[in-house]
Design brief:
It is a single chain. The protein has about 725 residues and is mainly alpha-helical. The chain contains 30 helices and eight strands. A hairpin with a 3-residue loop joins β7 and β8. The mean pLDDT is about 90.
């Protein structure tokens, strides 16, 4: 628990930095966000600049320490010089800071309950974090590809390695404190938007709304609840067609017995028939799933920055606040968002364009010029990233392609149901009340015609009778929601900023039904994954707006009924989250705590410590090629010493040197089967040490160690032998 306290101490140190910024610049450069959050961003900016200037001279950890120290010293001097003690403590003791701590502690305890860095892509993410913490460069070494730079979106790991680097925290502990940092900072980035949506300034209400946004699961949680109650027929689950959800013969409500049962509803959107050439397989995670899973992918790491960027754009147009400082912070948060997860640049830029589409005529010439300049600068920033920093050129020509198979309507509804129901009912009532249904009908028919005509441009889209019916149903729903949002922007007294956000989100979602960004998978898996995830949060926010809109217009009795109905709908989601947490905790193979590698054996730890203490940082330590999603290559991940190759499938996804990777994989296998001091890979890649463990013996079907006698044995236990190549 001491690690949690250390993190909070650093965060409250960052509060003093944010406090100093807000008070030095007062209203001229004041941006109105929480002091902890602004302190973290200023720390991230200064640490990034300092690391860039001292690249290959100082380790990243040293750069972070110096940056933090300088900022803290400056803040203390300011507070003392200006006698701001009373104001400092008055702001420091606000409820939002307390809630920040509570959220951080809650997520940290959640991580402690399933702390093992294992399964899915955790070991890969751990490798990146570990490498970043020991690196002297912003883009750190890929420990699984002989000291090449990481060819993946690694900037987020660099940013969140900042706090553990300050007090030299072990990377196995640091990994499990990244997620609490992200989620608690996300709360702070949402405060202003939540305040606007709810028209309430009470912090406890913000916490409730934050829980709603983050822990509300999709409608598929109802299917899971019904399933674990032992209800439903085989035909029903065959129709639902979600892999992993089949009829249960007994009640498994508390607690489900299948270890990975909760994984199924993150793969709702799919279509795979044995008699059809095409298939549609996607990932449709949502916030509570990602938190319980515990992975620290870039789509999670980016949340505080992308939400803050959307917030600044939101207020830019809502309040026509075209100040230099607001524009500056839009650029800063956009740059961080793009560097951490460039997929969200599409969402940000499209939201910006959506505001221009509907509001451009309302601005004067000066404001129009500013808007154009903002767009030009953001696009230039994005292009520079794609040209200079896009790792491994992850996008593949022609970069955009058409979807071959569309989603089935009931799958869309099972994912988006909660927000779509709330929004659809609300806007239908408003349209009826304002008597603008005939105008809506005209827009609806035009929008529907456009959506239905789009597939005509794609000769290779597959439509059988089932998919054609689903195409009609999908487009009927989206045509209504899109046309209704346009009509309300033009005619309603409702806040246009919320409606434009709705329009922008809907277009992004429906766009995933027709086109996708082409990567090495050459399907829409990642397009759906990234765009669904961020828009899930956005639509939850918009549904909250409509809920509060109606609560404020109802009598007390009707408010009670509405809140009760919402709570009833929330029960399956709450059950799913609690059950998934309990199941995931039961799966944890380590002890309760923050050490994510607590499950390692004594043999593992002995080998790791030996390598750390007896090898140089830049030495190549050859391991057998690890298989994806397994514990393999843990030595390189934990020690910070590169091996020649690990997780081949992922390297092939990240890089263009596919033939080289395959050849290297084969060469390593040949070496282990016939280990000779004259082997070419030893000299070519300057291998200093060789690992021979039970894993390598199984991986390469080795019967004994006799062939390694030409190498000097320098370490041995029951599981590992480590050889030195040269004396």
């Amino acid at each position: 628990m001491i690690e949690i306290l250390l993190f909070l101490v650093v965060f409250y140190g960052l509060f003093s930095i944010g406090f100093t910024y807000n008070n030095i610049f007062d209203k001229k450069l004041y941006i109105g966000i929480n002091e902890i959050l602004i302190g973290f961003i200023l720390f991230a900016i200064s640490g990034t600049i300092f690391s860039f200037l001292t690249s290959n001279l100082l380790d990243n950890s040293e750069s972070w320490k110096i940056s933090f120290g300088l900022l803290i010293i400056f803040s203390i001097i300011f507070i003392i010089k200006n006698s701001s003690y009373i104001l400092f403590f008055k702001i420091f003791l606000t409820k939002n800071n307390l809630i920040f701590s509570l959220i951080f502690i809650f997520i940290a305890v959640l991580r402690m309950s399933n702390s093992d860095i294992l399964h899915t892509e955790k070991i890969m993410e751990f490798m990146m974090l570990s490498s970043t913490m020991s690196s002297s460069s912003i883009i750190s070494e890929d420990l699984w590809f002989y000291n090449n730079s990481i060819s993946y979106y690694s900037f987020g790991y660099f940013i969140y390695s900042s706090i553990p680097s300050i007090f030299n925290l072990d990377s196995a502990y640091a990994y499990n404190l990244v997620l609490p940092s992200v989620i608690s900072l996300t709360y702070l980035s949402l405060i202003n938007l939540l305040e606007f949506v709810s028209h309430i300034k009470k912090s406890i209400i913000f916490l409730i709304l934050f829980i709603y946004m983050i822990f509300l699961g999709p409608l598929a949680t109802i299917v899971e609840l019904v399933n674990h109650l032992g209800l439903g027929s085989d035909y029903f689950y065959k129709f639902i067609d979600i892999e992993g959800i089949t009829k249960k013969d007994s009640i498994e409500l508390f607690w489900p017995n299948d270890n990975w049962w909760w994984f199924s509803i993150s793969r709702i959107i799919s279509f795979n028939k044995p008699d059809i050439f095409y298939s549609d397989y996607t990932i449709n995670e949502f916030p509570s799933f990602s938190i319980i899973l515990g992975d620290i992918h870039p789509h999670i790491l980016v949340l505080p920055f992308v939400i803050l960027c959307l917030s600044f754009i939101f207020f830019l147009f809502k309040n026509q606040s075209f100040t230099r400082i607001n524009i500056f912070w839009i650029n800063i948060t956009f740059i961080f968002s793009v560097l951490i997860n460039p997929w969200y640049s599409v969402v940000i830029l499209w939201y910006l364009f959506s505001n221009i589409i509907f509001l451009y005529k309302t601005f004067d010439k000066k404001e129009k010029k500013i808007i154009i300049n903002i767009i030009i600068v953001l696009i230039i920033e994005l292009i520079l990233f794609v040209i200079l920093f896009n790792p491994g050129n992850q996008l593949v020509f022609p970069y955009i392609s058409n979807v071959k198979i569309i989603s089935r309507f009931h799958h869309l509804f099972l994912y988006w149901g909660f927000s779509f129901l709330t929004i659809s009912i609300s806007i239908s009532y408003i349209i009826y009340k304002n008597k603008i249904y005939f105008e809506l009908l005209r827009y609806f028919l035009v929008t529907l015609a456009i959506l239905l005509s789009i597939p005509l441009f794609f000769s290779d889209i597959y439509l059988n009778l089932e998919l054609f019916i689903n195409l009609l149903l999908n487009n009927l729903l989206f045509a209504f929601l899109i046309s209704a949002s346009i009509i309300l922007i033009k005619n309603s007294q409702i806040e246009k900023s919320i409606l434009i956000l709705l329009f922008s989100s809907l277009i992004t979602i429906v766009g995933s039904e027709y086109i996708y960004v082409v990567d090495h998978f050459n399907n829409r898996m990642n397009t759906v994954f990234k765009f669904y995830f961020i828009n899930y949060l956005i639509l939850n926010l918009i549904s909250l707006y409509f809920i509060f809109l109606f609560i404020n217009s109802f009598t007390i009795s009707k408010r009670f009924i509405l809140v009760s109905l919402i709570f009833i709908l929330f029960i399956p989601s709450l059950w799913w989250s609690v059950s998934a947490i309990k199941t995931r905790s039961s799966d944890n193979i380590g002890s309760f705590g923050l050490n994510g590698l607590d499950y390692l054996s004594e043999d593992d730890i002995e080998a790791i410590q030996f390598i750390k203490n007896n090898t140089n940082k830049n030495d190549i330590v050859l391991e057998g090629v690890g298989k994806s999603y397994t514990k393999s290559n843990i030595l390189s991940s934990y020690t910070g010493r590169s091996t020649l190759l690990g997780w081949v499938n992922h390297q092939l996804q990240w890089r263009s040197e596919t033939s080289e990777i395959i050849a290297l994989d084969n060469a390593i296998e040949e070496f282990y089967k016939n280990p000779q001091t004259s082997n070419l890979i030893l000299n070519k890649y300057k291998v200093e040490y060789i690992v021979l463990s039970t894993y390598e013996k199984k991986r390469y079907d080795l019967n004994n160690d006799d062939q390694f006698r030409s190498f000097k044995l320098i370490f041995e236990n029951d599981y590992y032998k480590i050889f030195k190549v040269n004396d």
